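Standup notes
- DV: blocked on the single-chain target, sequence here:
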Amino acid sequence: MMILKRIGSFLNAEKLPLASEVNMSEHAAGSIKLAIHHSDKGEGTLYRLKKNSLIHVHPGASLLGRRVAIYCNYPADGKEFNRHVYTQLQWCSPTGTLLSQSGGSKFVSIRDVDCYCTVHLNHSGAYHFYVQYEGAEEGPQAGLYVQVEPSLTVGKGDSLTVLPLEAIRCQTVIAKLMGPVGSWEAKLRVAKESGYNVIHFTPI
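- DV (later): unblocked, structure below
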C-alpha cells in the first residue's frame, strides 16, 4: 500500500526539518529536507510537496562510507518531462561547496549526512530520485518519490481564487462507453448532482 505524506515546507535554511519531523499541516512553499536510506527504494511512500518548493535530498547514515551518484528525472531547464530521462545531481558539502568527483568518476564519497543535493520544484508532477553505488549493479540501490502539487485557480482579476486539491471532486468517464454525444448531458448530470465538480474523460 502506498503511503501519501503531505509535506509542509519550511523557510529555515540553517536547519531544515527531516521529513519524519514535519507537521503535515499547510505551510507556504519553501525548503524541505528528505533523506535517502540504503536499500529503501521509496516505493511505499510518496511525498506531496507544494509547487515552487526547494527540496534538499541528503544521505541517511546508512550511506556513510559509500561512493554514491544521485539521479532525478525532474526536467532540466527548458526541457520537456520524460519519466525515463534522468539527470545526475551534484552533491554539496554542508557549507554549500560542490563535492569533488575524484579521477573523473561520477561517484562521490559520502562522509557527512549533512551533504545534500537541491532541486527547485517549479513544475507540477511526480518525480523520482535514486542513488547508485560504485561497484554495484546498474539501477537504483535506494530512492524516493515526490509529487509536486499543481496550482489550480478559478476566476480572474480580483476574483481569482486558488483551489486546494482537497476541493476537487473528480470522476473519470470512459468516453467510448458514453453513447451518442446528444445523450451525454443527462448522464453527466448524475455526477453533478452527486457532488463531483470535475469530469475526466479518457481518450477515445
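- Follow-up: Residues 7-28 have pLDDT under 50 and may be disordered.
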